[in-house]
Amino acid sequence: MSILVLAEHDNASLKAATLNAVTAAAKIGGDIHVLVAGSNCGGAAEAAAKIQGVSQVKVADAAHYGDQTAENLAALIHANAAGYTHIIAAATSNGKNTLPRVAALLDVAQISEIVEVKAADTFVRPIYAGNALATVKSADAVKVITVRTTGFDAAAQGGSATVSAIAAGPDLAQSKLLSRELTKSARPELAAAKIVVSGGRGMGNGENYHKVLEPLADKLGAAMGASRAAVDAGFVPNDYQVGQTGKIVAPQLYIAVGISGAIQHLAGMKDSRVIVAINKDPDAPIFQVADYGLVADLFTAVPELVAAL
Amino acid sequence: MKILVPVKRVIDYNVKVRVKGDGSGVDLSNVKMSMNPFDEIAVEEGIRQKEAGKATEVIAVSCGPTACQETLRTAMAIGADRAVLVQTDEADLQPLAVAKLLKAVAAKEAPQLIILGKQAIDDDANQTGQMLAALLGWSQATFASKVVIGDGIVTVTREVDGGLETLELKLPAIVTTDLRLNEPRYATLPNIMKAKKKPLETVTPESLGIDVAPRLATLNVSEPPKRSAGIKVADVAQLIDKLKNEAKVIA
Ligand SMILES: Cc1cc2nc3c(=O)[nH]c(=O)nc-3n(C[C@H](O)[C@H](O)[C@H](O)COP(=O)(O)OP(=O)(O)OC[C@H]3O[C@@H](n4cnc5c(N)ncnc54)[C@H](O)[C@@H]3O)c2cc1C
Ligand SMILES: Nc1ncnc2c1ncn2[C@@H]1O[C@H](COP(=O)(O)O)[C@@H](O)[C@H]1O
């Protein structure tokens, strides 16, 4: 077996999600190559070469891969797919954007967001907002797979893969990036953080969200998240959303503040090791999954918690 | 220009899903079915573009059993002009097959823009739009929170992991919707009545020449490990004690 893993990166550095995808590849077993497609992406390629278990890093360095537009990226992967039994990416917004396009070009199914490898052709994936787990078997010649990062540990460092350049494909020029508005934060990345503090509609407004929750996140060195209701109401940007249709997280500790615990929210955090819920409604469904529930007004409980930590 | 909006009939998002005892799937008998929420957003977007004079016609299309007519009537009650049902009794219609059917419908209708949901809340696949874009050779912008149609182009703001990004696509193009794109209107009773008279054409995979056999075999569907409720703590002091000494997640 021979597996191609698409690197998630920002040209200069490799994103942690790539490490989880490599672990999923290692579970399948076989020769693992990483594709780094970008512009001036030597930094990311070097980092990929150090991942344990990777034998080769293939680098396609061209201006038209710099922004990771799906049309160019998918065409490149398709052109280099020969010989691979599996093509894998982390289920990041990038991976989810690109890989189905690759699968369709190859005329094969995609297996989305696997959480377990049963065999080289058989995988487990959540469906219905994580209310069910499906075990699916692919009959296709090439398996195109996205990996839920919370399902697999990060691959270790210490590898020494060979790095070689591959030819860039043509610039299809079907789409171009006009601008990016990335949320700046000194906090850990939400999807990979050990502790997550999340706020919901109960925060009331954006000012409260920041005033009440930031001191807690600061004390704990935590990433910050939110429910859909908090994002829809404009308390915080879209990239804070945890849930079925937002980010999937599984930290050591998840603290849900003023969040009711709708099934779509639980889908994104119920695999956390320890869940704490602070909510004034004793019947809020979030308490059904919380290890420690505190029935209290968040505006008094959270400052008290911050003071006592 | 025409806008095509694929809509999927799925279990209503408020329904508590039950896994069947024999592991063959989830129980769909006697449960409420609705239009996939992301597809309501897609229909609304199509209609707004038409209302803004950017589109001439909004066509809803659904692939599945006869019951999908209901979903298409809902789309027309929201404001779609007409509908196409690709009728099939294939119980396991997978995204690649749907993308092929939609490609065939697009070949007949020649839309400049196809707006899909980003994800169906039953299979949680998040694939069909991207696959359709590949099959048609069109540009794509997934997870849209803003869509502005220009002259031969469409500018789309996307919700991505790090925040937002804005792409300019050449038309024809594929867009998939995210939650913040718009808030779909409710279908009013007069519009529900009107929708009953709007044209609904039925075709079949056979008539379109598409093989819809599944590529993935589902071996088993099981319930995820259940998380048991823990305890309610009396106050903040007890919470901190538990986190430090029992769970050992903070120092
Ligand atoms: C297609 C679709 C996709 C979705 N995807 C997601 C998703 O990815 N993520 C997600 O989160 N949701 C998602 N949702 C939305 C989900 O169904 C819920 O509507 C949402 O999670 C509710 O957010 P909330 O808990 O913040 O708000 P609410 O349900 O309104 O809960 C607010 C809670 O705050 C408590 N509260 C209020 N004031 C205080 C106070 N002073 N002190 C303490 N507690 C207080 C209340 O008791 C209540 O329990 C999706 C919905 C759909 C239809
Ligand atoms: N059977 C179907 N009929 C019509 N549209 C569909 C169908 N399945 C998927 N779609 C469209 O594709 C989107 C993404 O679905 P999926 O790739 O299954 O998550 C949905 O939001 C719909 O817009």
Widest beta sheet: strand line-up of chain B: 9-8-7-10-6-1-4-5-11
Kindly report the average pLDDT value of chain B: 97
Strand order of the largest sheet of chain A: 5-9-4-1-2-3-10
Largest sheet of chain A: 7 strands, parallel
Distance between the termini of chain A: 51 Å
Radius of gyration of chain A, in Å, reads: 21 Å
List the helices and strands of chain A in order. EHEHEHEHEEEEEEEEHEHEHEEH
Low-pLDDT regions of chain B: none
Note the run of SSEs of chain B as H and E. EEEHEHEHEHEEEEHEHEEH
What would you call the quaternary organization? heterodimer
Largest interface: chains, residues each: A-B, 88 and 79 residues
Characterization of the model:
The complex is a heterodimer of chains A (309) and B (251). Chain A is 25% helix and 28% strand. Chain A has 309 residues and is an alpha/beta fold. Chain A has a seven-stranded parallel beta sheet with strand order 5-9-4-1-2-3-10, with helices on both faces. The radius of gyration of chain A is 21 Å and the shape is globular. Chain A starts with a strand and ends with a helix. With 251 residues, chain B is an alpha/beta fold. Chain B has seven helices and 13 strands. In chain B, strand 4 (57-64), helix 2 and strand 5 form a beta-alpha-beta unit. In chain B, helix 2 (68-78) crosses helix 5 and helix 3 (95-109) packs across helix 4. Chains A and B meet through helix 3, helix 4, strand 5, strand 7 and strand 8 of A and helix 3, helix 4, strand 7, strand 8 and strand 9 of B. Strand 16 of chain A pairs parallel with strand 13 of chain B, so a sheet runs across the interface. Flavin-adenine dinucleotide sits between chains A (200-202, 227-230, 241-246, 258-260, 262, 264-265, 268, 279-281, 284, 297-299) and B (13, 37, 121).
